[in-house]
Amino acid sequence: MAEDERRTIREEIEVGGGQLVEQVKHLIREGNVRSLKIVARDGETQLEVPLTIGVLAGGAVALAAPWLAVVGVIAALVKHVRIEVEREEEGTPALPEPQRTDV
């Protein structure tokens, strides 16, 4: 893997409705999140938002304000949600190729 490559990591975070907006803001500030998906306890997707890394690095919390209002409405309506996060991490050094020994 080249040093300038990035890898995609997916994770799930479970939060109460009251913590949803703050958790989403925190994720945006991290700057490496590519997309967020908010899923209710019954498995229904409430909101799915693709995010651009370049925009996030330039102070996207202000740019994200319109859909943060939507997140606030969702938080008021649900007691427990799951946030599915897709983020990019700097590539980790690849494992060395296995040495081939000719016998």
Residue fraction in strands: 25-35%
Side by side, the strands of the main sheet go 1-4-2-3
User: Quick one: how many beta strands?
Assistant: 4
- Straight-line N-to-C gap: 29 Å
State the helicity in percent bands.
Answer: 25-40%
- The protein's oligomeric status is single chain
Tally of individual helices = 4
What does this structure look like?
- The structure is a single chain.
- By secondary structure, the chain is of the alpha+beta class.
- It is 32% helix and 35% strand.
- It is built from 4 helices and 4 strands, in the order βαββαααβ.
- It has helices at residues 20-30, 53-57, 60-63, 65-77; strands at residues 6-16, 33-40, 45-50, 80-90.
- It has a 4-stranded antiparallel β-sheet, covered by helices on one side.
- β2 (33-40) and β3 (45-50) form a beta hairpin.
- α1 runs antiparallel to α4 (65-77).
- The longest helix is centred in the last third of the chain and has 13 residues, at 65-77.
Q: How would you concisely characterize the structure shown here?
A:
This protein has 103 residues and is of the alpha+beta class.
Question: Which SSEs are present, and which pair or pack?
Answer:
Elements lengths: L5 E11 L3 H11 L2 E8 L4 E6 L2 H5 L2 H4 L1 H13 L2 E11 L13
Antiparallel strand pairs: 1-4, 2-3, 2-4
Task: Provide the descriptors you would attach to this structure in a database record.
103 residues; 4 helices
